Amino acid sequence: MSYSISIVGLGYVGIVHAVGFANLGFKVVGYDIDEVKVERFKKGDPVIYEEGLNEYLERALADGKLELTDEIDYAVSGTDVTFVTVGTPSLPDGGVDLSQIISASKAIGRSLKLKDRWHLVVIKSTIPPGVTEGLIARILEEESGMKAFTDFGLAYNPEFLREGRALKDFFKPDRIVIGVRDERSRDVLLDIYKPIEAPKVITTPIVAELSKYASNVFLAVRISLANEIGGVCKALGVDCYEVLNIVGLDHRIGPHYLRAGLGFGGSCLPKDLKAFIKIAEKLGVKARIAKAALDVNEEQPRKVIKLLEKHLGDLKDRRIGVLGLAFKPGTDDVRESRGLEVVRLLLERGAEVYVNDPKAMEKVKGVLEDQVKLIPSPQDLVDSVEAIIIATEWPEYENLDYRGKIVIDGRRIEKARREARVYEGLCW
Ligand code: UGA
What contacts 295, CB < 8 A, 6 or more positions away? Predict the structure, then answer.
């Protein structure tokens, strides 16, 4: 059977799933509360930069497989399955802000009341263990007057998309995790994911919820451990990439997430690590390793500044260039970006800061414009400053002329390493 699918919340995860399912042939209705965004999607504007999203969005619209709306009743009542992909950002104390999940659940519950057919609600947003079967089930039941897992289906199905590769990850994931209580929800989700070849793990919602945090915590810990080993390597005058290459050849360890440097940013690893620490604390469990991973990560940008000061002394009024503001290449996302943190530290020291990013300049315009100089050409930036910090490993930065320059490299750009007059790698 072919199901029709609604997606509630067209942030980055939501729009990727909307076009992904539409391109698998499902009829999809994408809903967002933000009318302006909905209008942009309708016109084929993907709103965010994500490889392939443009083409997939255009195709889904042209084939009539994707409809967009700012009316939630229309989205839910006209479809069989609703995926919830609203944001669950960090609270100031590191806990999880569930306000969007709560309001989406209320609205979906009210829409369910209007339906005379069984409906499946699938939560995709990252949420603490227990929230699907606890808070969300309760709200849906209260608003709809129906019973979860019998009158309507409810499941937790985490996403493991990497920004910049999100569509590839959608069509070719390492695994699909289906957290369910009732057979009908399980069968519908298995049907929906049938076209995607991947191991499918059937489990309970709470296991599925925790597996998402555990995965991101694990990745964050690997990066921070690589950075800690990198610190020791740097102190010994050793190249940590040589050491970690040897480590990664052990099949029990593997080569991934061992790239030492400025550390991890983005909307997920830092947020989920902090949330995991909070979740553990509430349970009376000590999250020592997760906390240490966060500490190491916060220290990496400060180390860059120290290396710069070693060569330039006081940074007040010095012209410093930062190459890279996106939290990683292939995206325009600057959330928790290590590059922005470096900029902040430089401004704190009174430096004159020049910045470049191939994709993220628009994103920082409103925020940074008055404080830094935005330089559209990376070579112009390199040519106009006293020293350069590399904060994102954009391929473009492998083609610049670094001769005669002072470079502090947080991401290992080989050409800079070969050419710069003074070159300091963060962990090498
Ligand atoms: C991460 C996870 O990789 C996804 O599996 C997950 O679905 C997603 O979070 C999420 O929870 O939604 P993403 O935030 O797109 O994906 O970013 P990653 O590609 O994992 O990179 C995160 C950060 O770690 C970047 O700043 C990157 O530069 C840094 N990193 C990554 C390193 O410093 N070293 C490495 O070896 C790898």
Answer: none
Dist. CA 140–CA 107, nearest whole Å: 9
Q: How high is the pLDDT of residue 1?
A: 65
398 has pLDDT over 90: yes
CA proximity to 46, closest of 73, 71, 15, 68: 15
Per the residue annotation, which of 233, 240, 268, 427 is the catalytic one? 268
Pairing of strands 153-156, 120-123: parallel
Name 121's bridge partners. Answer: 82, 154
**166-218: per-residue pLDDT in tens?**
999 999 999 999 999 999 999 999 999 999 999 999 999 999 999 999 999 99
CB 74 within 8 A of CB 38: no
Residue 143 confidence (pLDDT): 98
Q: State yes or no: is 233 an active-site residue.
A: no
Mean pLDDT computed over 219-226 = 98
Residues with a CB atom less than 6 Å from ligand 1? 159-163, 216, 219, 223, 257-259, 261, 263-266, 268-269, 327-328
The overall average pLDDT reported for the chain is: 97
Q: 10 Å Cβ neighbour count for 207?
A: 15
Q: Are β-strands 153-156 and 176-180 bridged in parallel, bridged antiparallel, or unpaired? A: antiparallel
Count the neighbouring beta carbons within 10 Å of the beta carbon of residue 228: 18
Name the band, by pLDDT with cuts 50, 70 and 90, for residue 340: very high
| 261 CA: nearest ligand 1 atom | 33
- In order, the DSSP letters of 178-224 are EEESSHHHHHHHHHHTTTS-S-EEEE-HHHHHHHHHHHHHHHHHHHH
Q: How far, in Å, CA of 125 to CA of 96, rounded? A: 11
**Which ligand 1 atom minimizes the distance to the CA of 266?**
14
3-state secondary structure of 123: strand
Euclidean distance between CA atoms 267 and 386, whole angstroms: 32
Per residue in 347-373, pLDDT (tens digit) is 999 999 999 999 999 988 877 878 999
Alpha helix ranges (H) inside 237-334: 240-248, 269-282, 288-312
